[in-house]
Amino acid sequence: MRVTSERRLPDFLVIGTAKSGTTTLFRWLGAQPEVALPATKEPNFFGREERWALGLDWYAGHFAGIGDDRLTGEASVRYTAPELAELAAGRIEAVLGRLPLVCLLRNPVERTRSHYRHQVQRGRERRPFPDAVAEPDNPYIAASRYATVLRPYVRRFGDALAVVRFEDLLAGPGWDAVCTHLGLTPRPAPTGAHNVTATKERFTAPARIAYRRRWQRLAPALGPLRAPLRRVALRDGRRYRRLLTSAEAPLPDEAADLLAAETGTLATLIGRPIVWEGPPR
Asked: Which band of pLDDT confidence, cut at 50, 70 and 90, is reported for residue 199?
């Protein structure tokens, strides 16, 4: 256990990737009797400069009150964001040492589609899917280049890093692998997926403003106004539906070839093959 007289620090980290089931895994781990997790899933301490500037005491505060009889950890997907992976991996090693890490990976094509849909739902993306992923250095393909984002972690953590396909997590073997890696008592995998993009509603401009300013905390006080305000804030539209539907289009050849090459590089990096289910593009 990573416990000192002054600070309680995590015993493990779930480091991503985004839109690959980290919320589901976090909830499942939190349901285990040997585990106690903080209320905040993603403190992003090692990846966001404004959080890093708050210092180790701020970070340790998330785990305060958790005794040394249970494991604790956190799950911040930004630790494997393309622009942050190298920085975050170095900081994690420097502060926490070679602790167990878990990285969930999803079929990179499906992860790319989910990432795009998420941005459309949040009102941040207005280009059709083929145009968005054809743009050079676009964030959707970049975040699906798993070999690139995991290379800093493999170099620093070696076999302390467990790479698990999300498809395997839901099917059972992935959950067993996570439990073994973290030293948890083997149990049947919990059920239910959480934070599923396809089930979320659209954010219009008013909804985005409310979200950023945390106005949703005032919702209980709005009484009968809540229903009409929700319809305005989350209203649907033809253009919005067309954008979501565009995510079903095939990837451009260049993007599909790049992701296929990354899968081969990843297999070499972690020393075992990775096979994705479903259409390759």
From this structure: very low
